[in-house]
Amino acid sequence: MVNAAQSSAPRIDADELIRLANDAGYRQQIEYSESHHKDAIMEGRFALTSYPSGLSVHLSDLKELQTLSTSMELPPKLTLSVILRGKLDFDLGDSNFEAGGAGPECFALSIPRHQTFHRRLRANRCLTKVNISVSREWLECRSQEEGAAPFVMEELFSEDVIFAKWPASTRLIALAEQILNPPPLNHLLLSLYIESRAMELLSDGMLMLPQHINKPRTDAFETLKPQDNRRIATAREFIEAHLDTIDSLEETAAAVGMSVSTLQRRFKNAYGRTVFEYVRQRKLESARDALLKKELSIGEAAYKAGYRHPSNFVTAFKRAFGATPGEL
Which residues are in the HTH araC/xylS-type domain (predicted)? Predict the structure, then answer.
């Protein structure tokens, strides 16, 4: 049986948000001024749905109308999020985390024990995102099966909260958009459609997670000056726009008015990886998307990703995605 909590009104006040959280099994608290108690705090789409498979899907496509904080108790779980628009900032215990704000971005959040989650809303800020969550028990059950996820549960649920973020791939963006904007289907088919996309999104995200799980927390992004943040975001946009033709750091550095060494240092500080690592991963993702669409042969995909020898491409592809191109 599907357990769904969804706002039927475009404008959501504090009482409505608390009801939605309670329906989904969470105890929500909201810190607001009494003078704004009855005012709407957000408008748009907001839904929490739990599926029989154990997946929980939370989607938001809204505008925040007030500046305030919310809090709730979260159980041990893993959440994979795709932020398509806007920025999210929240606290878990004494740690602050931020994601989004510079283009579509994914983040993974692993909570090893019950934690108090504090979320900050900002008046007039827009946010479009999809969260897929599974409990620790759900993962532990599947990690005992043959062909389980390529990382150890003890690493994923260590003593500390694990937070990792990376630029969203074309495929993850497409899956998130399909969940947000499904085709017109009856209730049963709609449920199966969203659940299947959510499972794909979780699977693809977990394949990427081992590459980022040991990276230093990328909230160091905010230690840069605002103008440096903008220039690094512009550098990433330049790379995305010239992904098929870019062949040197110099052209990216020149496009944003930085030296190569400064670009390398600030890009890694912002995104937790070097420019080279980012370009290599994005080219592999682009090649994978083309293979999935049957647009290229494996040899052509290798060339597209910048590999002269298909054997090297196959090795890098399997390391990145857990499967060879021929196994797609």
Answer: 233-328
What residues are paired with 105 via a beta bridge?
A: 83, 167
pLDDT band at 133 (very low <50, low <70, confident <90, very high): very high
Superfamily of domain 220-327: Homeodomain-like (1.10.10.60)
Exposure letters 278-299 (e unless 16+ CB within 10 A, then b): bbbbbbbbbbbbbbeeeebebe
- Cα–Cα distance between 289 and 134 in angstroms, integer? 26
Q: Which amino acid is at 10?
A: P
Mean pLDDT across the stretch 172-183?
A: 94
Both tokens of 182, joined, read 């499904």
177: which 2 tokens? 């958009």
Task: Report how far residue 108's alpha carbon sits from residue 12's, in angstroms, rounded to the nearest whole number.
Answer: 27
Strands 28-31 and 3-6: unpaired
Contact 45, 59 (CB under 8 A): yes
